[in-house]
Automatic annotation (TrEMBL):
It catalyses: 2 a phenolic donor + H2O2 = 2 a phenolic radical donor + 2 H2O. Heme b binds at H196. Belongs to the peroxidase family. Ascorbate peroxidase subfamily. Belongs to the peroxidase family. Classical plant (class III) peroxidase subfamily. Binds 2 calcium ions per subunit. It comes from Eruca vesicaria subsp. sativa. The lineage of its organism: Eukaryota, Viridiplantae, Streptophyta, Embryophyta, Tracheophyta. SUPFAM superfamilies: Heme-dependent peroxidases. This is Peroxidase. One of its GO terms (molecular function) is lactoperoxidase activity. Its cofactor is Ca(2+); heme b.
Length: 333
C-alpha cells in the first residue's frame, strides 16, 4: 500500500514537472497579465481609476493626452512598471531629458490614494498608469478596450536608464530600431505615433525643424508651404520656447486618425511624425489607414491602435513574485 502511494506521488510529480516544462517551452507564464486581474481582490479598482481620471479631466482638458503620454514613457524605460513615477532624488528616472514635459504624476497619486483606502496594497501603480491611459483615450472619444492587468511595480528608477527614449530629432531608422528593441514593429510605430492626435508640444521641440533644419537657417522642406507660416507664427524665432501648440492641426482633443491625413499632406507638427511618410514601410502603413491603398476595405485604425497599445503595455512587465505593490507611487516600499 505504501509502495502504491509512493508511486502515485511520484507520477503526480512527473506530470507537474512535464507541464512546467511545456509552459516554459511555449513561453507561457502562470503569472501573465489578464483582464479582470483585480475582480476578486479589488472589484472596484477599474471604476475608481475611471472616476478619478474623469473628474480631473473636467478641470484640465489636456489630461487625456498627458496620461496617455505618461503610459508610453513608463513602458519605454524598464518596462511598464511605474518606474517613471518614483521620486528618489536628483537621479530619479522622471528627471531624464527624454521625459521632458511628462506630467500627470499627481493624478496617478490621487488614484492610488483612493485605491489604498478601498483595498490596501493590492493595485500596482503600473496598472494604474495603464488603466488611466485607457480611460483617457475613451474620454477623448477614442476606442474603448480592456486592459490586461497584474503588473507589479519596479524597484529601480534612474535617469540614466532613459537615455534611449525616442526623441523628436530621431531619424525614422533610429525610431524603427528603438521600437524594435521593445518588440514593436513599423506598424506599431505608426499607430502609437498617431496617439499625437491628442495633446500639445512645446515650441522648444520645433526650433530646429523651423529655423535650422538645413544649412543657412532653412526649415524642414517636408513641411507643407501652407502650413509653414502657421508654425512660425505660433513658434516665432527667439520666442517663448515653452509656448504649446497642438500636435494635430485639426482635432487636438479628439482621438481620431486625422493626424495620419496630416502626415500624408505635409501638415505634421513633429519631425518624427513627418518622418513616417519618408520611409517606404511606414508610408505604406499610413496610406493604408487614410484610404489610399484600399478605400473600401482598409484596416481599422481604432482596432489596430488598441492592439498596439495593449502590446506596448506588456513590455518587460513584472508579474508574480517580481517587483512590489507600492503604497505610494512616488516612493519604494
Amino acid at each position: 500500500m505504501s509502495s502504491l502511494k509512493s508511486q502515485m506521488v511520484w507520477t503526480k510529480a512527473k506530470v507537474s514537472l512535464a507541464l512546467s516544462l511545456v509552459t516554459v517551452f511555449l513561453g507561457i507564464s502562470l503569472a501573465d497579465l489578464r483582464v479582470g486581474f483585480y475582480s476578486n481582490t479589488c472589484p472596484e479598482a477599474e471604476s475608481i481609476v475611471r472616476r478619478v481620471v474623469s473628474r480631473a479631466s473636467f478641470s484640465d482638458p489636456n489630461l487625456p493626452a498627458i496620461l496617455l503620454r505618461l503610459h508610453f514613457h513608463d513602458c519605454f524605460v524598464e518596462g511598464c512598471d511605474g518606474s517613471i513615477l518614483v521620486d528618489n532624488g536628483a537621479f530619479s528616472e522622471k528627471f531624464a531629458f527624454g521625459h521632458e514635459g511628462v506630467r500627470g504624476f499627481e493624478i496617478i497619486e490621487a488614484v492610488k490614494a483612493e485605491l489604498e483606502a478601498a483595498c490596501p496594497g493590492v493595485v500596482s501603480c503600473a496598472d494604474i498608469v495603464a488603466l488611466a491611459a485607457r480611460d483617457s483615450i475613451s474620454l477623448a472619444n477614442g476606442p474603448a478596450y480592456e486592459v490586461p492587468t497584474g503588473r507589479r511595480d519596479g524597484r529601480v528608477s534612474n535617469l540614466s536608464l532613459a537615455k534611449d527614449m525616442p526623441d523628436v530629432s530621431d531619424s525614422i531608422e533610429i525610431l524603427k530600431d528603438k521600437f524594435m528593441q521593445k518588440g514593436l514593429h513599423a506598424k506599431e510605430l505608426v499607430l502609437l505615433s498617431a496617439a499625437h492626435t491628442i495633446g500639445t508640444t512645446a515650441c522648444f521641440f520645433m526650433t530646429k525643424r523651423l529655423y535650422s533644419f538645413l544649412p543657412g537657417g532653412q526649415p524642414d522642406p517636408t513641411i507643407n508651404p501652407v502650413f509653414l507660416p502657421e508654425l512660425t507664427t505660433r513658434c516665432p524665432q527667439n520666442g517663448d520656447v515653452n509656448t504649446r501648440i497642438p500636435m494635430d492641426r485639426s482635432s487636438e482633443r479628439l482621438f481620431d486618425k486625422q493626424i495620419l491625413h496630416n502626415i500624408k499632406d505635409g501638415f505634421a507638427v513633429l519631425q518624427t511624425d513627418a518622418g513616417l511618410y519618408e520611409d517606404v514601410a511606414t508610408r505604406r502603413i499610413v496610406n493604408s489607414y487614410v484610404g489610399l491603398l484600399n478605400p473600401l476595405f482598409g484596416p481599422s485604425f481604432e482596432s489596430d491602435f488598441v492592439k498596439a497599445i495593449v502590446k506596448m503595455g506588456k513590455i518587460d512587465v513584472k508579474t508574480g513574485s517580481k517587483g512590489e505593490i507600492r503604497r505610494v507611487c512616488s516612493t519604494f516600499n
